[in-house]
Amino acid sequence: MINKSDYDVYKLKMESTLEYLDDEFANIRAGRANPGILNKLTVEYYGVQTPITQVGAVSVPEARMLVFQPYDMSVLKEVEKAIFKSDIGITPNNDGKVIRLVFPPLTEERRLELKKQIKKLGEDAKVSVRGIRRDAIEAFKAMKKKSEITEDDVKQAEGDIQKFTDKYVEEIDKKVASKEKEVMEI
């Protein structure tokens, strides 16, 4: 007999795939200022690689501008260098107290590139969810081999896992469509 808790592991993995997709989408610059774009950048702070978001405050004073205010002014030059070296494609403006990042409007060509990137991330997430489905079905078949469950239980489990898979794939499609719309509208 299969318990609902047997499915929880796979549902959790599928859910974490959606969370990862959300994180990746947050890093896509869609023409408006998004503090999440700085989340992966680090600076050397007292000999330790530290996320930029831990050495200063990031604010969004207007729709297409981020302002970074360091807690310790000695780190300002390092943050500026890290932003220059990153692939976010924005030149920082350092006035000695804060760093301003002004997001230029997106060109049509750049929008189409971002749309392709969004589609690829969505497809990668679907592949991940389908891989989790495959792993789940294999696990239930292994349980049947050990005579822990019956053939009917395996069929039931396959149907249930497919329902979860369909639900998460549909959710991925919604997220992709929403992000594409956001990129193309700005």
Explain how this protein is built.
There is one protein chain. With about 190 residues, this protein is an alpha+beta fold. Helix content is about 55%, strand content about 15%. It has 4 helices and 6 strands. The protein has helices spanning about 5-25, 75-85, 110-145, 150-185, and strands spanning about 40-45, 50, 55-60, 65-70, 90-95, 100. Strands 3-4-6-5 form a 4-stranded antiparallel β-sheet, with helices on one face. Strands 1-2 form a two-stranded antiparallel ribbon. Strand 3 (about 55-60) and strand 4 form a beta hairpin. The chain is elongated and about 70 Å long. The model has no long low-confidence stretch (mean pLDDT about 85).
Q: Helical stretch count?
A: 4
Summarize the main sheet.
4 strands, antiparallel
Shape verdict = elongated
The helix-strand sequence is HEEEEHEEHH
How many angstroms separate the termini?
52 Å
Number of E-type strands? 6
Query: Which structural class is indicated by helix and strand composition?
Result: alpha+beta
List keywords for this structure.
4-stranded antiparallel β-sheet; 56% helix; elongated; 186 residues; alpha+beta; two-stranded antiparallel sheet
Q: What does this entry show, briefly?
A:
Helices cover 56% and strands 15% of the residues. With 186 residues, it is of the alpha+beta class. The strands form two sheets. A four-stranded antiparallel beta sheet has the order 3-4-6-5, covered by helices on one side. A two-stranded antiparallel ribbon has the order 1-2.
